[in-house]
Specification:
Number of strands: 7
Radius of gyration: 43 Å
Distance between the termini: 87 Å
Strand content: 15-25%
């Protein structure tokens, strides 16, 4: 940057009406959409302007001129900068939108201003490009161009898809145990027999696909089970049929308990006051 250059001049054609461009320099929310991360503006002569970025840099100043849809001028005092500078924004209607001319003047001529002027030039070029993109298309280029990890959606194509592993399909998982069928009339339970028989003492364990043998006492032979005596509660099997039967018995037991409580509550209305306390104790137990 030459020290003999006390000002920077930028021109930007924006396909948007002058009113939107003017709002981008005088409305805090609109300014954060393209220039900074936080802004406080009082767009009137003598009003304050404060803008800040996510880093440590910020700038403060004062509005000098505000002419709707034509002119905005404010001072600029950046953090750790030697002296204030001035920014002038001229807005003119164009055939395809708005022609913007921004002049950042009053820069110093010393060596200390070389880096500051270079940062100004870089910042205004990218910011004005972003302003045009936001007003014309919507997305903020600071977000669009942010480095991302992984594969971007725009980079995904048929070649990349061909290198990805194929779908292996659905795999069925089996437990390896077959459901136990209920015993027939006159048949003993599975795995039960007289003392010393198979399944009673040191018998072979269940094979793949077979239910677990029921545990039975060794002191007496097992009588044949009749349909009336057969109940899942008498078996300690791990098959799916036994579990379903146990669930049904539990549900039946719960139904009996609920019926008993309902009957007790119904009896409260017909009993004498002296007997109400016992009924209340029954209800509170449930």
């Amino acid at each position: 940057m030459s020290r003999s250059r006390p000002k920077l001049i930028f021109n930007q054609l924006i396909a948007a009406p002058p009113a939107q461009v003017f709002r981008a320099f005088t409305n805090a929310s609109a300014m954060c959409e393209w220039l900074c991360d936080m802004a406080t503006l009082e767009p009137q002569p003598g009003g304050r302007i404060y803008i800040k970025w996510s880093g440590s840099y910020y700038a403060a100043g004062e509005f000098l001129q505000v002419e709707p849809e034509r002119l905005v001028t404010f001072t600029w005092q950046g953090r750790a900068e030697p002296k204030p500078t001035q920014v002038t924004v001229n807005i003119r209607p164009a055939q395809k939108g708005t022609r913007l001319r921004l002049v950042h003047r009053s820069l110093g001529r010393t060596a200390a201003w070389d880096q500051i002027a270079a940062e100004y030039e870089k910042g205004w070029l990218s910011s004005l490009e972003n302003l045009a993109h936001v007003l014309e298309h919507g997305p903020d280029l600071r977000v669009v161009r942010r480095p991302m990890l992984g594969v971007n959606v725009s980079d995904f194509n048929a070649e990349i898809a061909s290198r990805l592993p194929r779908h292996v399909g659905e795999r069925r998982v089996s437990t390896g145990y077959a459901a136990a069928a209920p015993p027939q009339d006159g048949q003993p339970l599975a795995g039960a027999g007289p003392q010393g028989g198979a399944g009673a003492q040191g018998g072979a364990g269940p094979q793949d696909g077979q239910p677990l043998a029921a545990a039975r006492p060794n002191s007496a032979p097992t009588p044949a089970a009749s349909p009336e005596s057969y109940s899942p509660l008498n078996r300690r099997a791990s098959s799916s049929s036994s579990r379903r039967a146990s669930t049904e018995v539990s549900c039946s037991t719960s139904s009996v308990a609920i019926s008993a409580s309902v009957s007790a509550i119904s009896a409260m209305s017909s009993r004498s006051p002296a007997s109400d306390s016992s009924a209340l104790k029954l209800c509170s137990f449930f």
